[in-house]
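Q: What structure does this chain adopt?
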Amino acid sequence: MDKASIEKLEFKTDAGLGHIARIGLICLQTDQTIEHEMASLLHGEGIACYHARIANSMDVTPDTLRQMQHDLPETAALLPSQFGFDAIGYGCTSGATMIGEERVSQIIREIHPGAQVSNPITACKAALTALDIRRIALVTPYAPDVTTEMQANLKAAGFDINAVASFNQSNDFIVARITSDSILNAIQTIGSRDDCDAVFVSCTSLRALSVIALAEAHIAKPVISSNQALAWHLMRLANLNHRPANSGQLFQH
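A:
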């Protein structure tokens, strides 16, 4: 068949997917959880989420986390600027802590100047402010050198970290295999203290989303996780008032 015999079809175009909000997400190469949990939160008519993966080490240390700063511009550029993103999230709580939240935002905005930018630690602070909470308990999967940096970051922002507990893991592969029941038990144990008014479960690799509602019912306090907070913040930055079911008290704000 020659080219002249190929029938040309008529077509129309529209605004495409995400005509209400287009959200970009920079995921870690080693993350096994964030895309799954985000898919259950960032859904709905007219909402589209696009992912790009950034190179990182399976071994989570302050040095390997800071290394991502060098790859962040190239990864951000994998999200096509022609899409017109409303909001873009860098999906690493500890990475944003080590690199610096403002530096992360600056790098992404250099590629996407019209987009709002967030990350899980910034989103956590916004969530706690929306909930009017200052006294929290912190649950992490990290080794002490990463956990203490995050604790100091939150304290510097004016939050009282009255209890800290960790699974003490540096291997991100293992972190993603920590069971949701283990996370639930950790929240219930540390969240039962009288000197905390909420629990923050840090790390996008932890499978926390499915147990947030159960944990809140048990401790009668808000529970915030990295993926939940990031999804909430990206939605609100994109002017979405979306309230996914069974995803925690945070989405009432």
